[in-house]
Automatic annotation (TrEMBL):
SUPFAM superfamilies: MurD-like peptide ligases, catalytic domain. Residues 58-209 form the Mur ligase central domain. Keywords: ATP-binding, Cell shape, Cell wall biogenesis/degradation, Ligase, Metal-binding, Nucleotide-binding, Peptidoglycan synthesis, Zinc. Residues 334-448 form the Lipid II isoglutaminyl synthase (glutamine-hydrolyzing) subunit MurT C-terminal domain. Belongs to the MurCDEF family. MurT subfamily. It comes from the Bacteria. Transmembrane segments: none annotated. Forms a heterodimer with GatD. The active site is at residue 370. Pathway: Cell wall biogenesis; peptidoglycan biosynthesis. This is Lipid II isoglutaminyl synthase (glutamine-hydrolyzing) subunit MurT. It comes from Heliobacterium modesticaldum (strain ATCC 51547 / Ice1).
Amino acid sequence: MLYSPRMLVGLWAGKTAIWLNRRIGHGGTSFPGGLGRRIAPGLLSALAAQLKRGAMVITGTNGKTTTSKMLAEMIAASKLTLTHNRAGANLVGGITAAFIESASIGGSIASDLGVIEVDEATIPQLVREVRPRGVVVTNFFRDQLDRFGELDKTVTLVEEALALLPPQSVAILNADDPLVASIGRRYRGRVFYFGIDDRSYGSREMTQSAETRFCRLCGHPLTYDWFFFGQLGHYRCVHCGFQRPQPKISVSAIELKGEEGSAFTVNAPRGSWRVELSTPGFYNIYNALAATAAALRLDLPEPSIRAGLQGYRTNFGRMERLELADGRRAFLALIKNPTGCDEVLRTLAQNRGPKRLLVIINDNAADGRDISWLWDADFEALAPILPELRSVSTSGLRGEDMALRLHYAGVPAEAISYEPDIHQAIAAALEMSRPEETLYILPTYTALLESKTALANLGHSPRYWEE
């Protein structure tokens, strides 16, 4: 419980700001936490220290939100209480706001566990304030170059954060990403690796752009036996001996089912079990694997882990499925960097049948001002399914740039429509959709927030702070 008057004032100010923001129709995900911190800088530390079983932190470029929500489902299935920045606000203000909302008016946190999604640049500060029980690192890809600069800077920030962990904490790392796995070689604490052993997906040759082809430890080229996507795969360095670590938890017998999701076998120290995942996309198997690894380190029972995965439904724009009237459906899928965009496009192309496409690009600070990544993303992957695309449209602050990119990817200029207003673009795309068609809406981050508001106003989605 918070006894300091200053702490209580900071807490109450934050709670008031959350209430006011929602009264006027905003989510209140960052400002309330920032306000509370200005009044009481130690507020997050004081609240997080009350978690009965500590916190698990999830970071990395792609998959943070989905992984954390999958883990939250597993914890709920275990009948444990949770504090979680579920709206996806992953800077320190948004994380503090989640704890403010979870606390009582007197400053008590009754939760058993915390699940915290955190931005890579914020994680050193978060580790200092929260002192988590473990950190999950999903992957590293180019993202917001104007903010992070070179990718090695991002990796170094996470590496520095892990060095700040308490001795009893654990680093849960993706063995298939050489950038992530290299951290494990230098980290002096406990490491728990996860990875995919099944080679039924991917290829022996690199078919996508990768963030690195060189060993981060010695600088020499890596040799790959198998690629999944980007630089993720089975690799080794013949010069210094660095290689993919043997994962303690892995996935095999993968079966992709298009829009219906996937099935796979989880192999863990406790045994193996089959999982049906309703979330489409191969990359979401990695998210499920990361969440399972974290759950095992939290000593959650296997039935709860399985129930959490099988009960998980995508939301908040991570291949979120929306059932519309007359047999129509829509998918809302965040895109923010080349590799993540490529995997969304790959999933879209694998789902056969008539479809419509709306790509919404903003370049606000939260999106990254630099949108050159659009030219690295493989929009050419749409070529085989052009006959299936009933309409192609763009919107957002940089929607015209996106229309040009699609034209160079092979979409005829006359087939592309541009509507600058996001709300009108979504309404028009929904109006055009016919029974048995699927509408794919692909927005950047701030465009996703506007898209969720538009869909809520049209009655197709809850507001994002209500999910």
